[in-house]
Amino acid sequence: MQKYLTIYYDLVNKIETKQWPESSMLPSEHELTQMYTTSRETIRKALNLLAQEGYIQKIRGKGSVIIDVDKFDFPVSGIASFKEMEQKLNISAKTVVNELAIMEADDELQSKLQVELRDPIWKVVRVREISGERIILDKDYLNQDIVPALTKEICEDSIYHYLENELMLRISFARKEIMVESPTDEDQTLLDLEGHSTIVVIKSYVYLDDARLFQYTESRHRPDKFRFTDFARRLKN
């Protein structure tokens, strides 16, 4: 086995057995070269693999911080509210509504929501806080013709619960896109990014059972806290 892999597996073992606890700094490259009696290039290969596998986050000018290896499983398929996810994962979370407003659809949102230019739509910006850390930013846009009224209390609780149990709407299916982007200024302001240079974005187009598109969402996640999962079955021709 190549030496950098031997070092990688030894570092993984130390992290997983909590010899170096979460949020602590990994020894410096210089300290690791002395610890393993090897070159800095070999140490860098091991550290790059640790970063790729989600064990550490490199922070420019500081070194490598050990991140939580116990990530939340976030199912990509299916449609669930954050409140339903919270209950399923048995986590304690808090939702903060940063913005709730009616706006006119611009060119981009006209296309995404399939409405007319300047039609009124709801804009809801919510931060999801888990274990005291702000790690999800949800930006929802909803067709006001379909969702005539929203309140801060509804948005803090569950919009889907309100739609299904008060407005008696039937949410049916969604089309999703997943991408990795650089954080925006808004992400940096509203989330605890702690030096993370990327953010995972799930864009969802959500439809009712009569095939009407009523919601476009951007759910922006800090990458170290989530494992994005799906279930797939091979179909023979």
UniProtKB/TrEMBL annotation:
<feature type="domain" description="HTH gntR-type">
    <location>
        <begin position="1"/>
        <end position="69"/>
    </location>
</feature>
<keyword id="KW-0238">DNA-binding</keyword>
<dbReference type="InterPro" id="IPR011663">
    <property type="entry name" value="UTRA"/>
</dbReference>
<keyword id="KW-0804">Transcription</keyword>
<dbReference type="Pfam" id="PF00392">
    <property type="entry name" value="GntR"/>
</dbReference>
<dbReference type="Pfam" id="PF07702">
    <property type="entry name" value="UTRA"/>
</dbReference>
<dbReference type="InterPro" id="IPR050679">
    <property type="entry name" value="Bact_HTH_transcr_reg"/>
</dbReference>
<dbReference type="InterPro" id="IPR036390">
    <property type="entry name" value="WH_DNA-bd_sf"/>
</dbReference>
<dbReference type="InterPro" id="IPR012770">
    <property type="entry name" value="TreR"/>
</dbReference>
<dbReference type="InterPro" id="IPR036388">
    <property type="entry name" value="WH-like_DNA-bd_sf"/>
</dbReference>
<protein>
    <recommendedName>
        <fullName>Trehalose operon repressor</fullName>
    </recommendedName>
</protein>
<dbReference type="InterPro" id="IPR028978">
    <property type="entry name" value="Chorismate_lyase_/UTRA_dom_sf"/>
</dbReference>
<dbReference type="InterPro" id="IPR000524">
    <property type="entry name" value="Tscrpt_reg_HTH_GntR"/>
</dbReference>
<keyword id="KW-0805">Transcription regulation</keyword>
